[in-house]
Write a structure and sequence with these properties.
Protein name (chain A): Enoyl-CoA hydratase/isomerase family protein
Largest sheet of chain A: 6 strands, mixed
Radius of gyration of chain B: 18 Å
Strand content of chain B: 15-25%
Radius of gyration of chain A: 17 Å
Number of strands of chain A: 9
CATH architecture of chain B: Alpha-Beta Complex
GO molecular function (chain A): isomerase activity
Number of domains of chain A: 1
InterPro entries (chain A): ClpP/crotonase-like_dom_sf (IPR029045), Enoyl-CoA_hyd/isom_CS (IPR018376), Enoyl-CoA_hydra/iso (IPR001753)
Largest interface: A-B, 33 and 40 residues
Structural class of chain B: alpha/beta
Largest sheet of chain B: 7 strands, mixed
Strand order of the largest sheet of chain A: 1-2-3-4-6-9
CATH superfamily of chain A: 2-enoyl-CoA Hydratase, Chain A, domain 1
Family (chain A): Belongs to the enoyl-CoA hydratase/isomerase family.
Order of helices and strands of chain A: EEHHEHHEEHEEHHEHEHHHH
CATH topology of chain A: 2-enoyl-CoA Hydratase, Chain A, domain 1
Shape of chain A: globular
CATH class of chain B: Alpha Beta
Strand content of chain A: 15-25%
Helix content of chain B: 40-55%
CATH class of chain A: Alpha Beta
Number of domains of chain B: 1
Pfam family, one (chain A): ECH_1
CATH superfamily of chain B: 2-enoyl-CoA Hydratase, Chain A, domain 1
Number of helices of chain B: 13
Number of strands of chain B: 11
Oligomer: heterodimer
Structural class of chain A: alpha/beta
Number of helices of chain A: 12
Shape of chain B: globular
Distance between the termini of chain A: 35 Å
């Protein structure tokens, strides 16, 4: 399902695609979370790259409704908690790079928001994570893209092409698809020139600032968003 | 006109404008702790003079400021209380130096960021480290086409700058590019990212135009708007971030290097300032 490798200070996590997160497949979320935590704790790793082996970074998918009692227990543990997959990426002690080709559905866009740096192929597209995912973090989006653009993404539920994503600051570089892996390698190489202690302490400083901005509190609100969203669906009262 | 060793200060009362000019062109205007103190002293004068509405900050020569003076950066720890008690300065000395000279309420960056007058920056050539923070802390920034913005010191020890201010200005991912990827932003990139307001062929003329425009605003209007900005800075967590920066920045002066990692301080000690700076900035990539 997920494989990891380490070479020359760079840890690589590979999956066929990260679409299972969009469908809230818990075993996948746990496996990805564990891979990120393991590489974050590895003293031979400075950079973690999230890569896919097939066409799309995260294929389309919609999560099924979750019962309220499960939201507060198992769902919270796997998708919203401080120990869950997204916060493991967002608050990793190492620099996390997402390498995006093809479509990036809701969960893929959340991984992009949680990662430090993103390289995208020209064919990449980025779906709004706010339409389907209660755990989507608006504070991260506002910090990344600026408030007005994040609001537009949220309200319109739009999908951005790569060229727009780079212009609004959601991704760092857009390159032809056949140059994607090489560009990511070069980006990772530029990061690994920093001392390991420097990277770790820089990420700690980053965590303090993100916390100050309310990124963690926004993750805490995911349970409430989920209950509101799925309470209606469970009762069959939501329209449109 | 008042001139300290490497910082010049003048007031043009007809134009309601003060000028602070870094004058250390032979060292690409690298800033020492003494220069930072001098700038703060001049800001004291500006703050107390009701006739001054605008402060223009610039550097003599090709570059605004190529960063900290490396040897002075270490000396500031030795000069702080508790700094010379043992072979290496104490942790409290590092914290006090970072707070007093740079990030704390009386430090250069806070003083500039919270100046009650309109601050206009003339950015040319290298705008590194302190030069980058001048751009972040000033109200209006005019860059020459040759201006480059970066913080190469982060490459050596990790990020010791203020993150909240950088995030608020350019966005999270672009800030991280500057933090981790050994890049320098060109004037055009800095304009696209929102770090500078104008790129001009005649930088001095554009700065003068902005200074005159700002000086045409009534005093109460300027100060009222500046206090509205200060309130927003607090809400955006800038003060919290400055405090975190002080702590982490002081801690980064204690880092241990893994085998094969570049040790700037060792290079500085063995080969001198010019060679160490050249080596440490060799990989800096313009984007």
């Amino acid at each position: 399902m997920i494989t990891t490798s380490v070479d020359n200070w760079c840890g690589v996590i590979e999956a066929a695609d990260y679409g299972p997160l969009s469908r809230h497949e818990a075993p996948f979320a746990r496996a990805l979370r564990q891979a990120v935590v393991d590489l974050s704790d590895d003293d031979h790793v400075k950079v973690i790259v999230l890569r896919t082996t097939h066409g799309d970074f995260a294929g389309a998918g919609t999560p099924p409704p979750v019962d309220t009692t499960e939201v507060l227990t198992t769902w919270h543990r796997d998708f919203a908690a401080s120990s869950a997959v997204y916060q493991a990426v967002c608050f990793s002690k190492k620099v996390v790079v997402t390498e995006v080709a093809g479509h990036c559905s809701a969960a893929g866009s959340m991984l992009v928001l949680c990662s430090d740096l993103t390289v995208a192929a020209e064919n990449a597209t980025f779906a709004s994570p706010f339409t389907d995912l209660p755990e989507a973090n608006f504070v991260l989006a506002a910090l990344t893209m600026r408030l007005n653009r994040a609001k537009s993404w949220l309200l319109r539920g739009s999908t951005m092409p790569a060229a727009e994503a780079v212009s609004v600051g959601l991704v760092n570089q857009v390159v032809p698809a056949d140059e994607l892996a090489a560009t990511t390698r070069e980006l990772a190489r530029s990061v690994t020139g920093m001392p390991l202690d420097g990277i770790t302490m820089s990420k700690m400083l980053l965590q303090a600032v993100l916390d100050g901005h309310g990124v963690g509190r926004e993750f805490d609100l995911a349970d409430h968003y989920a209950i509101h969203r799925w309470a209606g669906l469970n009762a069959g009262t939501v329209q449109g | 006109m008042s001139s300290h060793e490497h910082v010049e200060f003048s007031i043009d009362r007809e134009r309601y404008t003060a000028r602070i000019t870094l004058r250390r062109p032979a060292a690409e205007n690298r800033v020492t702790t003494a220069m930072a103190t001098q700038i703060c002293d001049f800001l004291d004068v500006v703050e107390q003079d009701d006739d001054i509405k605008v402060v223009v900050l610039s550097g003599e020569g090709e570059h605004l400021c190529a960063g900290w003076e490396p040897q002075d950066a270490w000396r500031q720890y030795l000069d702080a209380p508790g700094g010379s008690v043992r072979k290496h300065p104490s942790q409290r000395a590092r914290l006090i130096a970072a707070d007093e000279n740079w990030w704390g309420p009386r430090g250069l960056y806070t003083r500039l960021l919270r100046c009650r007058k309109v601050t206009v920056l003339e950015a040319r050539g290298k705008c590194f480290e302190t030069g980058l923070y001048f751009a972040l802390c000033c109200d209006l920034v005019v860059a020459g086409a040759d201006a480059r913005f970066a913080c190469p010191r982060w490459r050596n020890v990790g990020v010791d700058g203020d993150m909240a201010l950088l995030f608020a200005t350019v966005g999270l991912k672009r800030a991280k590019e500057l933090m981790f990827c050994d890049v320098a932003w060109s004037a055009r990139t800095a304009l696209a990212y929102g770090l500078v307001d104008y790129v001009a062929d005649d930088v001095a003329a554009k700065v003068e135009e902005l200074a005159n425009m700002s000086a045409s605003i009534m005093r109460d209007g300027i100060v009222t708007e500046k206090y509205a900005v200060f309130a927003s800075l607090d809400k955006m967590g800038i003060g919290h971030s400055f405090a975190a920066t002080t702590v982490v920045g002081a801690s980064l002066s204690n880092i241990h290097f893994q085998p094969g990692e570049y040790n700037f301080l060792r290079d500085l000690r063995d080969n001198g300032v010019d060679e160490a700076l050249s080596t440490s900035r060799r990989g800096l990539r313009d984007v």
